[in-house]
Amino acid sequence: MLGLIGRKLGMSQIFEEDGRVVPVTVIKAGPCVVIDVKTVDRDGYSAVQLGSEKVSEKRLTKPLLGRFKKRSLDALRILKEFRVSEGHELEMGQTLTVDIFEVETKVDVTGVSKGRGFAGAMKRWGFHGFPATHGTKDTHRVPGSVGASADPARTWKNKKLPGHYGFKKHTTKNLLVKKIDKENGLLFVRGAVPGSRNSMVVVRKLG
Asked: pTM of this prediction?
């Protein structure tokens, strides 16, 4: 699925012709440059590697910088690979913009959710907690029983307990593109996208 690398700018709303309000996430997508083209004959699969956001050469490692110089391209901060079907017409050095998307089509958006640090079981997993009255004492927000007794005498794996909450890769699927601002390279997709403002996201077109 071909797509673009972008940044989440925040949420807004647009109005339909019938007056309905549609909540949208604004994404600054592209422009992205084709850094490498993978082929079935050479690499065993078909894909393209895109780069985004120019960066100073001193901020890259020498092996990575050498890839850009070998192709006579500007140094880019972010690289991402997209699987594509055979027979595509993408070439190295080609620039992709929001023109590859269409209004009222669906996309998948991948980002990193907001990090919330160490959180208790109620906040992390949505537990309701113990009753506030009727004899409950000092255990209102505890997770409850965490394991059996003598057998197996340990806590089961994947038990929902307090721990690091958020800051994980997450994909929101089937978001609808409601508006495209080609002049400014903006996508307006219906619904929420993981991540904080100005965080990096990857937008993949379906089909």
From this structure: 0.81
Are residues 201 and 195 in contact, defined by beta-carbon separation less than 8 angstroms?
Answer: yes
Say how far residue 87 (Cα) sits from the centre of its chain.
Answer: 27
By the 8 A CB rule, do 26 and 9 touch?
Answer: yes
Which of 122, 93, 98 minimizes the C-alpha distance to 27? 98
Q: In whole angstroms, what is the distance from residue 55 CA to residue 207 CA?
A: 32
Instruction: Judge whether 117 and 38 are in contact, CB under 8 Å.
Output: no
Q: Are 122 and 160 in contact (CB under 8 A)?
A: no
pLDDT single digits (tens) 149-192? 788 888 888 999 999 999 999 999 999 999 999 889 999 999 88
Q: How far apart are CA 135 and CA 113, in angstroms?
A: 38
